[in-house]
Amino acid sequence: MPDAVRDFYDHLAGGYHLMFEDWESSMARQAAALGPILERECGAAASVRVLDCACGTGTQSLGLARRGFHVTGADLSSGAIERARVEASQRRLDLPLYVADMRQLSGLPETGFDAVIAMDNALPHLLSDPDLRQAAAQIRGKLKDGGIVMASIRDYDQLMLERPVVQGPAFFSDGGRRRIVFQLWDWKDERRYRFHLYITRETAAGWETHHDAAEYRCVRRDELGRILSDAGFTDVRWLMPPDTGFYQPIVLAKSTSH
């Protein structure tokens, strides 16, 4: 994964919550959507060990830990992991956290997870099929036999046809002051686009704007499914937002014996 992606999330870590109208509510909503899927696939939360291999500042990890899952988090960004540790401590959650690239998970001290998750369009930060294959193999290596991978990506089957250039803006309130969040997508070719995030806040001293950018590579659902199958996963299936209440399509697949 490019250093630019790590730098993007390092810089964004302190203000990551500002992308959401209410980060706490979003955590709860996402955990309410993902938790039942994990329980259906793996068993009751209290018995399920989950590795979030792209945990960022903890949006899914914190929410699932609150629901009783035994969660371990890892992320490429040391800044995001530092923020996640603070958030976990403030909530008194037992949430081991490590700095690790999802293509190199073998260095993590734990293994034999019931589930490995990679949410929020994390996989398309990997800019080639070989990188995706490496990540899929590393994820499988962290799962017990019969464990599952669960990942979400944007609906690139549709987005590659539409090639949108703007997402938002969304207008939020910050203690009586305004906050504006929007994205620009600068398409480089039919597959790649540069994602520009702008967060503009009204402060006592006036308006201030935060800008960061990172690159994504579009991945169709059938392409990701084939990569997972090639890595030794079976029963690859997709769950769409109307069926899950989660905001992106979700892929599930089962690990076969190593």
Please give a structural write-up.
The longest helix is centred in the first third of the chain and has 20 residues, at 23-42. This protein has 2 domains: 3-153 and 220-255, Rossmann fold; 158-216, N-terminal domain of TfIIb. The chain has a 7-stranded mixed beta sheet with strand order 3-2-1-4-5-11-10, with helices on both faces. The protein is built from 8 helices and 11 strands. Helix content is 33%, strand content 33%. The radius of gyration is 18 Å and the shape is globular. A hairpin with a 4-residue loop joins strand 7 and strand 8. It is α/β, with parallel strands linked by helices.
What are the low-pLDDT stretches, counting only 5+ consecutive residues below 50?
none
When the domains are counted, the total is: 2
Give the ordered list of helices and strands.
Answer: HHEHEHEEHEHEEEEHEHE
Q: Name the CATH superfamily assignment of the largest domain.
A: Vaccinia Virus protein VP39
Range of strand content: 25-35%
CATH architecture annotation of the largest domain: 3-Layer(aba) Sandwich
N-to-C CA distance: 25 Å
Q: Number of helical segments?
A: 8
Classify the secondary structure makeup into a structural class.
alpha/beta
Q: Strands across the major sheet, in which order?
A: 3-2-1-4-5-11-10
Number of strands: 11
Biggest sheet statistics: 7 strands, mixed
Task: Please write the CATH class name of the largest domain.
Answer: Alpha Beta
Helicity range: 25-40%
Please give the radius of gyration in angstroms. 18 Å
Approximate shape: globular
